[in-house]
Design brief:
The complex is a heterodimer. Chain A is an alpha/beta fold. Helix content of chain A is 40%, strand content 28%. In chain A, the strands form 3 sheets. Chain A has a 6-stranded mixed beta sheet, with helices on both faces. In chain A, strand 9, helix 7 and strand 10 form a beta-alpha-beta unit. Classes of the chains: A alpha/beta, B alpha/beta. Bound molecules: adenosine-5'-diphosphate (ADP) and magnesium ion. The site of magnesium ion has 4 residues of chain A, from helix 1.
Chain lengths: 250, 442
């Protein structure tokens, strides 16, 4: 589904991703762990198409298409979703209008008519119950005045609405208490399917107790330095990242 | 009315702040106008005494007038009605209309209210003498010019307790080069009367010259007045709009100004709150593009206690356009319990666009609530990327942010049909095909 080869990206003159390789097949859940500043969010942003980052080399194939050749809107409409580490507040734009525009953008891409008001509302109802999103939040401005947990649940709500083929979750667990974490994880698990793949970025192993990954990769200094199964996450939790750095240098 | 204008004397002592070259150009324009039409003369004394605006006149510091003179060698005063304009510029609006084409009243296009307790006529057809010069004419050269040369406009008088049953749309249309359109609107609203007014200014693409409109509104005790101003002029006009609004006790006056299009626009909106318990609202938006220039100078003068004023001006500046916002709020010593709010927000879409924004609050009473805020920023790149990452196109994402930015001002326009037409015209000008969908979804 997604094949990342030798990806290099920088901000200004500073290289951040330094030749990253990762292949994700349909239905798989991959976790990326790594110390702060390793480049995890950079990878997520580059995949989503943020222009701020300059891609200096490598390729990303998304179901036979050149992902890096598409702009952010096209990537989303083609089925890529990024749950932001820091969801953005948009004062004056209601959550519900925002989602309607997003849904209709995708439908336009699929050659479908804009969604009918009634269908849209029942979809909203169904998907917001998945993450127990308070109905009142729908009419509020996008993320404005939401608590940290509400923002993260709103990300998963948006993902459920848009039904992407490939979702990248950037530290969706950060700032969540254990109840919110369970809700978010069960929302994600409900969406797991043989056609849908996930890249779950996290700093802590905790999330992976709830969203059990097929593979775990360790990202250090812009490269994947080690890969394994879910036990690797437990080992990292136990021993930290330093031993990996030592091992990979050695 | 005096037949002959006074000879033009340069009295340098009475004009301490003149710029000689500009002064000469102003006087030449005036002479050309005198030759075309004898002024009413009432305000000639002020014309003699006032400096022709230039950069060192405080209220014109950021308002470029140089371009004005170069387009203006030979002003034309239209006395014969040329082409008419569209019957009603607002689709679906059931309104009375008073139409002026190049400053001349167009009876065929107009539909005046015939109503007990309402007098509405063009000045040329009414017999009472024109209103005497007020503060604006005494302090602003262009306003004095209006007083000296305007022989047409609307005279509206609404009697006690009368509520005009439909909005009254005053349409100013300009076509052709070198116009010198002077209009004066004199509006008196007696106690407890109510009226909704629309000022609608359009021009064709060949239009150039000056449109100079002076509006006086006297709102008597308990009256309600709403004025929706729409400026959508093609061509290369210099548009000057002066408003002086005087509010007696317990009056409500709301003025909304939407500038869609205009090469050079100067709005000079002035409120004086003379009676207690007044409520004033003045909101506006401006979205210039290309090398358009839009200037909003506002003054709210709180002279009495227990009044509220609320002001919000939002600007989005595209291309190489530029703008000015200057908001003065005076709270006089006896205007206790004043509640005055002012907000001015600006988005510079490109690094070539410019805004000069200045709130000026002068507060001489101690028991008041006054707040003001002024922001200048760009489109929120984070918000744009967030929307795009959800599959929303960049154009639609921007339209959403525009709507969020000026939505409150748009919603405040008194006449719903005007609001809808504004949205339509903005979408057309800026090519936001999806904007209407966005709005409808809201
Ligand atoms: N806007 C930016 N400008 C400059 N450097 C940045 C910017 N954003 C991130 N970085 C740097 O890029 C590196 C990777 O950051 P990031 O991808 O956010 O790491 P992670 O998500 O793994 O913590 C860090 O060294 C960080 O300081
Ligand atoms: Mg990060």
């Amino acid at each position: 589904m997604v094949n990342i080869k030798e990806l290099q990206a920088s901000i200004g003159d500073t290289p951040i991703l330094k030749g990253l390789n990762l292949e994700i097949k349909p239905g798989e859940v991959h976790a990326i762990m790594g110390p702060n500043g390793a480049g995890k969010s950079t990878l997520a942003s580059v995949l989503a198409g943020r222009e701020h980052y300059a891609v200096k080399g490598g390729s990303v194939d998304f179901d036979g298409q050149d992902l890096l050749d598409m702009d952010a809107t096209e990537r989303a409409r083609s089925g890529l979703f990024l749950a932001f580490q820091y969801p953005v507040e948009i004062p004056g734009v209601s959550n519900i209008n925002f989602m309607r525009a997003a849904i209709n953008g995708k439908r336009e891409h699929q050659g479908l008519e804009p969604i009918k008001g009634k269908d849209f509302l029942s979809l909203v109802k169904e998907k917001s119950s998945l993450v127990e999103l308070d109905g009142r939040l729908r009419n509020r401005s996008v993320n404005e005045g939401f608590s940290g947990g509400e923002k993260k649940r709103n990300e998963i709500f948006q993902m459920a609405m848009l039904e992407p083929r490939f979702a990248v979750l950037d530290e969706t667990d950060s700032g969540l208490d254990i109840d919110a974490l369970r809700i978010v994880a069960s929302g994600v698990n409900a969406m797991r399917s043989p056609e849908r793949s996930f890249l779950v970025i996290t700093h802590y192993q905790r999330l992976l107790d709830y969203i059990v990954p097929d593979f775990v990769h360790v990202l250090v200094d812009g490269k994947i330095v080690m890969s394994g199964d879910k036990d690797l996450a437990l080992k990292l939790e136990d021993k930290g990242y330093d031993w990996i750095k030592e091992e990979t240098i050695a | 009315m005096t037949g002959m204008a006074k000879p033009i004397v340069m009295d340098l002592e009475r004009k301490p702040n003149i710029h000689l070259a500009t002064q000469a150009k102003g006087e030449a324009l005036r002479a050309a106008l005198v030759a075309l039409r004898s002024g009413t003369g009432l305000a000639a004394e002020y014309l003699d005494a006032l400096p022709v605006p230039h950069r060192r006149v405080e209220r014109w510091k950021h308002t470029p007038v140089a371009g004005f003179w170069s387009t203006y060698e030979a002003p034309q005063v239209q006395t014969v009605l040329a082409a008419g304009c569209e019957a009603c510029p607002v689709p679906g609006l059931h309104a009375y209309r008073m139409v002026f084409v190049n400053g001349t009243f167009d009876p065929a296009a107009s539909d005046l209210p015939v109503h007990n307790g309402v007098q509405c006529a063009p000045i040329s057809m009414s017999d009472s003498p024109p209103r005497e010069a007020g503060d604006l004419e005494a302090t602003e050269w262009f306003a004095a010019l209006n007083q000296a040369f305007a022989i047409e406009g609307m005279r509206l008088h609404i009697k006690k307790g009368v509520v005009l049953d439909r909005p009254l749309l005053v349409h100013h249309h300009t076509h052709g080069p070198n116009s010198a359109n002077f209009l004066r609107h004199e509006i008196t609203v007696e106690a407890n009367a109510q009226v909704q007014l629309i000022h609608w200014s359009t021009a064709d693409s060949q239009a150039s010259g000056m449109v100079n409109i002076m509006t006086h509104i006297e709102a008597a005790t308990g009256s309600h007045v709403a004025l929706d101003k729409v400026q959508d002029e093609a061509g290369k006009l210099h548009h000057l709009a002066f408003e002086q609004i005087n509010q007696a006790q317990s009056t409500q006056v709301r003025v909304h100004t939407g500038t869609i299009q205009g090469q050079w626009v100067r709005n000079d909106l002035n409120f004086r709150l003379d009676g207690e318990g007044c409520d004033s609202v003045l909101n506006g938006f401006f979205l210039p593009s290309g090398n358009e220039f839009v200037d909003n100078h506002t003054t709210v003068d709180h002279c009495a206690a227990n009044c509220t004023s609320s002001e919000q001006y939002q600007g989005i500046l595209y291309g190489s356009s530029s703008g000015v916002f200057n908001g003065k709020v005076f709270v006089r010593p006896n205007a206790q319990q004043t509640n005055a709010y002012q907000q001015n927000g600006n988005i510079l879409v490109t690094d070539k666009s410019k805004i000069n924004a200045k709130p000026e609050l002068e507060i001489y009473a101690d028991d008041v609530k006054c707040s003001h805020g002024c922001t200048i920023g760009q489109f929120d790149e984070e918000a744009l990327f967030y929307a795009r990452s959800r599959g929303i196109s960049e154009a639609e994402a921007k339209a959403m942010l525009v709507n969020a930015f000026i939505g409150d001002v748009l919603d405040g326009f008194a006449v719903p049909e005007v609001r809808m037409e504004l949205e339509h015209r903005l979408a057309t000008k800026h090519g936001w095909d999806t904007w209407n969908d966005t709005l409808e979804a809201g």
